[in-house]
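Let's study a protein:

___
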Amino acid sequence: MKTKKLIELNKFNNFSSGELRVDKFYNYNPKEKLENSYGVKLAIFPLFKNSEETYSLDLSSQCNAITGIAFTKQYYPEAKVSEYRLIVNSEENYIYLHQFISGMNIMMRIPFIEFEAPPFIITCKKDDNDYIMMSSNEKLVVWRKNYSPYEITNVPTMTSMCYNDGILFCSIESPAYKIWYAKDWQFENIGDIGENSGYLILEDDIGDARKVLTFDEDVYVFRDYGITKIMNTKGELSVNQVYVSNTRIFPNTVCLCGNEIVFMTIDGIYSFNGSSVSKIDIDISKYLTTQNDNAYASSLGDLYYLALKLDFKDDKKVLCENNEYENNALLILNVNDGAYQILRGIDIKNLCPARCEEFEKMLVTFNGTNATKIGEIVDESVSMNEALPKYWLSQELTNSFNNKMFTKLSITADQGVKFNLMLDDENISFTTYQNGLNEFNFKLISKQIRLEISSIETSAKVDKVVLEYYEY
């Protein structure tokens, strides 16, 4: 028998050797320590400016479900104040408005405005006036400060829109190879051909236009299988293909985050810097499915939030997976350093960043039982008030295939964390009995070993794992 050897796990996104990596994890944040993940709770807002009195928003008395959400800002130069509002679309196709920091915690329905499908909403500025624009089907609603919202009808059914240098660009539902534009803020001209309006034709073979957005003073069109750039040269608009994808881009995952645009295809997460596309090195490709038309992304600072459906390749059912669901996971990615978390068991419908002087939050809406509630991402490993079950699985912990006798497991962790040693012919499990150092002695012979860590506790941190063995 040879001398005693140690397997030391001091990092949980990568082992200390730099060679062996984690195989699967969710509801854990794998860093130097194995820490608790983010979670979601009912969103809490201050009632007044600098107030400790708070409230939450639940529309269960007003609608059956929330189908869309947007956070907007309108500036009033005369009073030198900004008003921050939440605009919500209901399953009944009504539009509701909530004003923050107003002393009221109610959602008011905007009369006479209904959409047959959830609208997308953007804000833009002209001559110190903030405009809120909502569009769905063949309708565009424009709302300027101090004026009632007004409708522009008989416009093409838009799928997205953006502003750049005073020009409104719109992708449309059909024919989706056209990009409509209107110059000089003439909203009413969308769908008409004139001196200051018209359309661009996308003649190549990389698919329909799904989303337009402004990035680094240019306009980009995200297509089914690529990216097109719209160029404005001395007032003349033209298009140029800048990227071709081998797999379909999910349009609602396209999001400006930090200094790049991030998006998802069937084989992974990608970033676009305005000239080239790079795949982000996170290992979720094996869990991605083709059924991600309901995937939805947003960003706050350098964090990219992506609600999606993943197949975790196991027989477990975590929280929302016990019922029907559209999405069962939330990916939170830091685009600066590549660190990421995966939350499993939460069925999120929409994500909406909300920023003002009083708070900064990533708001969420849900499918299923919480469909009338406004939630937020929190630094607590829960889904509403229920603990998120945590899981972490290593790859094989040794490189050789010689027989080994494993004799001791030392763990520095919270109480109630389960450790399962997966051997050649059997598994053996231990549960930590105290916070801090826990030690377990045994004798098991195996050629290979993997480690599985799990917990149903809200707090289930793991600091260090040491496994002792002798190799024959």
